[in-house]
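Internal ticket #5521
Category: modeling
Description: The requester needs a full-assembly model to guide mutagenesis choices. All entity lines are attached below as received. Residue total reported by intake: 641.
Assigned to: D.W.
Attached entities:
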Amino acid sequence: MLSAWEESSVARVLPPARPRKLAKVPFVELADGRLQGVVSSGSDIGRVYVSSVAAGDFAFTCSTNNNRPCGGAHGGFCKHIEALIGEAVLQYGAERVARYLRVELANGRSEAWDITRTMGASRPPQGDKTAAAPVFSRFLRHLAYLELVPTTTPLPEMQWFPPTRAVA
Amino acid sequence: MVPADEGGGLMRADLLVEPVAGLDEVLAVVDAFDRTLVGGLLRPHPTQAGALAELAAAVAGTPLAGRVAEAAEKAAAGTASEDHLVALAAARTALLGAAHDALVTRADEATGRDRGEEAQAVPAGQGEQAANLQAAARTWLADVARAGWQGIDHDLIADSAPVVFAMLPDPTLRRLATLLDGFSAELAASCPGATLERFPLRRWADLWARALLLTRPRVDAGPAVGTATGRLLPLGVDVQEHATAAQAQVHAVFEPADGSPPRLVRASVSVSKPDTVVGVGVWQLLRPHLSLLAAAGEGRAMDLTDMPITAEGDLIWDDAHARTGRPADAFATARVALPTAVAAPTTPLDRHPTRIAIPVFLEGYAAAEDGATALVLAGHHIPVDVDRIPTAGPLTPEAVATSTACIGLLRWDAGAFRIQPLAVETTVKKKTVALHAGAWAGGTTDKLGVKAEKAATEAVAVLRERAGKLLRK
């Protein structure tokens, strides 16, 4: 016998993102085995940083969208990566972020700060810098969702995607 | 319960809980097939071969018999081609289509509703590029089936992204693209599959099979087959969403101006969205494209002139064919107009128990003792899907538990009919008040709602500003 969840066509698999302010970190995602996203520069409104932390070994990268390395991301996480982790925790909840990155939290606590500190303490290596370009193009695709024309022709498949009151 | 003297007949709750003949047997075949997708079809195990043979046997008396028998044999040997996988998906879809038909017949008996005649599906035209993208999607879905849910990894799931993004702008591919986008997001969040302890078996097999069939030429939203002129009386708003898409559907009774019988109809609007747009932000994106959302929120009818409508009862909304009419209370519509409204049949390939969403009106029930998880109707417990109530609105599970009347959608999932509340009447300070799930769809003056609207407006403004800078460089 299957459980009710297993035999439900509308089993909820992914909790919806939680609302957050987007100015500082306009884009965060758990994808391709990484926490990755785009962080606004604190000083230059025309510049953004593409930052990522890999699941498992926490290899990190941070560079501008023009591939200039971030000055702060040498021996460890820079402020952009810290902001990225903080906003990811707001959007997805600390538990999901920790699980995705495979962070073992020693004291069982899971706040953004604990996740950041635990990963930082493991002396993570510098990651592969070529990741920045695909992350930036994913951000552009993400923005492009707002440009697609709405339709009043029904999408019957959306019946499989009911809302849920559960939060991440 | 609907009073018998109003033409709607008594809501026969007993029929909703009584077993439907043959249903368990059909679902057992489906479940066995769905389990074969856990390990994947690359190197099938003998138990998987058994399940595939059962699937073939179940459609042996249908026109699919030959193809499915061959496909099952090839799949059991680990050598199924894409076309073979399409045949298996078609067999599974046919079984669930039969389940749908049996369940709708039962629901119509329980609610005393008439259903209209079936219309022929019309093949949709499409270009060569669309065919190429469908082929790419089919290849990806075949790879996923071979890997199985246990075998999915980030690289495999990421392969779907370019296909989805290429399809999204094409209106003829919107259904497939939106489905694959939601499906692949779930798979991506579940990678690597080897670490999963349990799988949403029915759900992922449903999404896989539907997507696979949508990669074949034919299926598109039913083209408009007629026009509607008359009065539209909204009953309630149903919303559906995944991370990057949302759809609102207004269920309504349509009274044709020519005096022909009233009909149950829907009007839909859907948008793509970034995953960070949620809650009232979704209403904000949908609102400008369907004036009916505001009318439903304000409790008004709309007058339609030559609005396109499909054989399935879907209005293809265009504001140019509608204007706001007189006040029309949804509960009055539900009490008076709903019982005699005729429902439309669903297109054959789209039949599936998950498609069942029949507007119903209930009163004279009690909340189950454990709260709002079930309503007790004539002694029978009917589960209530309170999780479907959108958070961006005044309706809450608590209000359902204390309600005295309910407009809902009768649905079926995981072995049981259930009620999705769209609106309830409840008593506040000795006065009857109506709370609608979609009350904020057209806008709100509610204090919490206004605050949420402002935050959502800011979030979208930030993204649009970025998009303006980055996308048009």
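Resolution: model delivered.
Comment from assignee: Chain A has a mean pLDDT of 90.
Ticket closed.
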